[in-house]
Design goal:
2 copies of one chain form a homodimer. Chain A is mainly alpha-helical and 411 residues long. In chain A, 79% of the residues lie in helices and 0% in strands.
């Protein structure tokens, strides 16, 4: 317990919070999600550039891990598991294709390039993710969240998150050195799925009466802290059950989603998230080796993974062949990998399954898919809206109305 | 960076948050401030009892330090430095006597008992504190905050906080091994006072336009994070200037107090505080050696310090001799040492100026002064109110009206 380490921690946190906020705001002004700015802030503060932030420092590492737990708890709080059933077939088809195709293509590309099986599996897994945060945020900014396409993307992203979390714990086990066997994979899958099922079932029985009780303690902040403690507890239980901590955090959020106390828990969690979540993304950025990005091999691999990642998700958009919807819009909206892709990559790096080179290539892929989507979606929606304005179809109802409505809102 | 440490940290945090909240609520139900429950939670989780919480663990230590910084930032945000001038002479007299008498008596008692000069100074300093949080909270619960006595206590507690913070940095320097000399003490005092003066002057020029700019970034959470980063920055600068981090945090809060953005910064800081602040108090409780409390010497020393601490603050209440106010009420309201007393004790323990025995005796004193005040104040106000009811003076205006008003509210 060095007495000098608190000033040092304060210096690091001041630099981190300011850089994350400034670059996050700049990113937003450029039409990008703020997570892009936070990643860039990490690259600047990390060992490749300024050397202020060491993501392997135990305190920073633990704060970053609390950050990703708080983030997944927030995502869970926003996830209505019952509405998944209603969004139905289309979302499921998009999600499944959007997981299977990028995983298969990514695995093949990595194997062809001579990487190990474990590395190829982790890289493939990182390609399966869809960032529900970035997709939902961008569609909402463009006024597209209420369209049929927006609803399908939202549903598919939620299912993708759940599938992704299951894949994450399977892959964690594999990357952690557990031998790859059908039995082992099945067991890990069953533990992960079983944990979610048991947590959700027990949770929806026990948790609502408990939180009704907590609500009667009128002292301010009690509900928020009870929610956070519940998220930490399920994260711990998930980890003890051989699954990933963030599965527990997500399940805790999803259980609390349907309680009447949700909105107040959400307000308090969001305040904590404003502090903790950027630490995760900046620390992730700080793990990027700029030197590896100067490596043509890394850039080539990153571009190959990027191409595969874009192709796989766009293909997924064409999954619901029986529907008359803007399938390209769905596919493009599924492209950003965001935080979940980074979680895979980070996990692979920490467990040693990925080399720094492959980690950097995956980060490049995540950065590129996250960067390209918002401007691409904005362009697609704007040109459609322009077309419908020209054809004087604005106000004709349905999707076109929603689109031109969105465009009017922007004027 | 052991991958296993995140589940362990989660387990510790779950135990800490639940124990702090449960015992805090029990304390409140028993008419005590929740900080008492948090201290008891720490004693239960610490090495003396369950052994779950190790306050010297680097991550817990740093989270606790962030907790006390967030707390002092909150206290600063609530402190209107301009109104100090208005509360005026009475509050200053109460504050100065309330610092001088307990310090002198505590120093004498410790020296007589054969303790070293540095230890006697730290113990004396710990006796000077008044917990603005506990005093203000208790008076407000009893409906006494708007009375003349309440205003004097509030003003004196604020001045006490500022004096206490200056004493803290002087004593930190001494405890840190800087030789005791009039020149050295003067220099440290001047650095501490100078830091506050420069920070407040520069701060009130530069900060309001800066936060007006920050406010124009409409993204939610920006003001809160900017406030927190400012608090961390001033904490760091205070530390670099040879003062204590919490002086910087307090100054940051006081500077932001008069900005129009204060209330929104306060909301966000309070949410963070609900998580971070209990970590400080529980970790402080976990540093208590129950074994030392079984030591008659420690209990005797603790009782002696407790007697001195009560006497000194009650004497301070009689300071404004020229006013017709309830002087005993003022004195009793100044008794609780709360967080500031613990900060001194913790600092003394960390720097090695205090033995575990003296630390435990000081903690006993802090616990006792903090525990005794709320029930004592409640008893005094109730019996006065009963008296005025008997004399049918309720509604006659002035102080008595306020008192019986408070009693009606409680019925």
């Amino acid at each position: 317990m060095d007495h000098q380490d608190v000033p040092h921690l304060l210096a690091v946190l001041v630099a981190l919070l300011i850089a994350a906020k400034v670059l996050g705001v700049i990113a937003q002004r450029l039409g990008q999600p703020s997570v892009v700015g936070e990643l860039v802030a990490g690259i600047l503060l990390g060992k490749s550039a300024l050397g202020i932030l060491d993501p392997t420092d135990p305190v920073i590492h633990d704060l970053a891990q609390l950050g990703v737990i708080v983030l997944l708890f927030e995502i869970g709080l926003q996830t209505n598991l019952r509405s998944l059933a209603k969004v139905g077939k289309a979302a499921t088809v998009v999600a499944v294709i959007g997981v299977a195709v990028p995983f298969a293509l990514g695995y093949v590309v990595c194997t062809v390039l001579g990487l190990s099986t474990v590395a190829a599996v982790v890289a493939g897994a990182a390609l399966t993710a869809t960032s529900i945060g970035i997709s939902a945020r961008t569609l909402s900014d463009l006024g597209q969240l209420a369209t049929p396409e927006g609803q399908i993307v939202l549903g598919a992203a939620v299912i993708d998150d759940v599938i992704g979390l299951v894949i994450l714990s399977v892959v964690s086990a594999l990357a952690g050195g557990v031998a790859i066997s059908v039995g082992g994979v099945t067991l890990t899958t069953m533990i992960a799925v079983g944990f979610i099922v048991v947590a959700l079932m027990l949770g929806s029985l026990v948790v609502p009466p408990f939180f009704r009780l907590v609500e009667r303690i009128e002292e301010s902040g009690t509900l928020g802290i009870a929610g956070l403690a519940f998220a930490f507890l399920l994260s711990l239980l998930a980890s003890l059950a051989g699954s990933a901590t963030i599965i527990g955090a997500f399940a805790a959020g999803a259980i609390l989603h349907s309680t009447p106390q949700r909105s107040r828990i959400e307000v308090s969690t969001t305040s904590l998230g404003h502090f903790f979540v950027p630490i995760f993304f900046v620390a992730a950025g700080a793990s990027v080796e700029l030197r590896s990005l100067g490596d043509l091999h890394v850039v080539g691999l990153g571009l190959a993974l990027f191409a595969v990642g874009v192709l796989g998700k766009v293909a997924a958009g064409y999954g619901p062949v029986w529907l008359r919807v803007r399938k390209l819009l769905i596919g493009v909206a599924m492209i950003p990998r965001g935080e979940v892709g980074l979680i895979f990559a980070q996990m692979g790096l920490v467990t040693g399954a990925l080399t720094t080179q492959l980690f950097s290539a995956l980060t490049l892929m995540v950065l590129a898919t996250t960067l390209i989507t918002p401007p691409l979606l904005a362009y697609m929606v704007r040109s459609e809206s322009h077309m419908s304005d020209t054809l004087e179809m604005a106000g004709a109802g349905g999707i076109d109305d929603l689109v031109s409505g969105a465009s009017r809102k922007r004027d």
